[in-house]
Amino acid sequence: MQSVDESGRSEAVEGFASCGRRRALAGLTFGGAAFLTGCGDRIAGNRPRKSDITMAPQFVLSHQPVVPVLLEVDCLGVSLANVDNIFSSDPKDRSYALYFAMTASAVSDLSVVTQKHVGRKLFLIVNGEQMGVHPIDKPITNGILPVLLTGKDMDEAKARLLHAHLERSIAAIQYFHTKG
User: Fold this and answer.
1) How many CA atoms lie within 13 A of 96 on its CB side?
2) Residue 145: what pLDDT?
3) 100-117 as b/e, with b when 16 or more CB fall inside 10 Å?
4) Residue of 121, 21, 8, 113 lying closest to 65 (CA atoms)
């Protein structure tokens, strides 16, 4: 156990303060290398598995419901948000939205699609079921696609579960897509 003197400094701090500059930097370098090695082991243990892909989001236009304009590989991540229901005075009556972050190549595709199809809708299709909608009122140029969840009886628990599955699936899809 380290002792602490009257000024509150431990032996380790005193030793660090009294050692030479080169020794201190060498110690920091070694400590950083050990930290990075430890993180690498932890990250390697958390690699996605193919079984993590339970949902594959796709986006289709309202007038072309069979042909996806964006695929699961176009998504980098997803966030969940809750939205006030403007048609209800009940504060517990909430809607939920997912915000999809797109890959660099999909940002331009999303911009072109939303620019050409203002006034139409983009539907979120997950495993063949329509789960959400984005009414296109202007082009999306920032690569973030907000989608209002419209699934049957979509409450907070279902929205969180959908988000968790999509988040895990998208991470695994991106991992295996970039791995080749």
Assistant:
1) 21
2) 97
3) bbbbeebbebbbebbeeb
4) 121
163 and 123 both lie in a single domain: yes
The dihedral sign for the CA sequence 108, 110, 113, 115: negative
C-alpha pair distances (Å), 99 with each of 66, 110, 146:
23, 13, 4
Segment 32-59 shows an average pLDDT of 64
Q: What pLDDT digit, counting tens, does each position of 112-124 carry?
A: 999 999 999 999 9
Q: What is the CA radius of gyration of the chain?
A: 24
What are 116-171's pLDDT values in tens digits? 999 999 999 999 999 999 999 999 999 999 999 986 788 889 999 999 999 999 99
Task: Measure the CA dihedral 139/165/161/148, to 10°.
Answer: 10
Burial of 165 (0-12, 13-18, 19+ CB in 10 A): middle
Residue with the two structure tokens 């897509």: 177
How many domains in the chain? Answer: 2
Assess if residue 5 is contained within a domain: no
Domain membership of residue 155 (yes or no) is yes
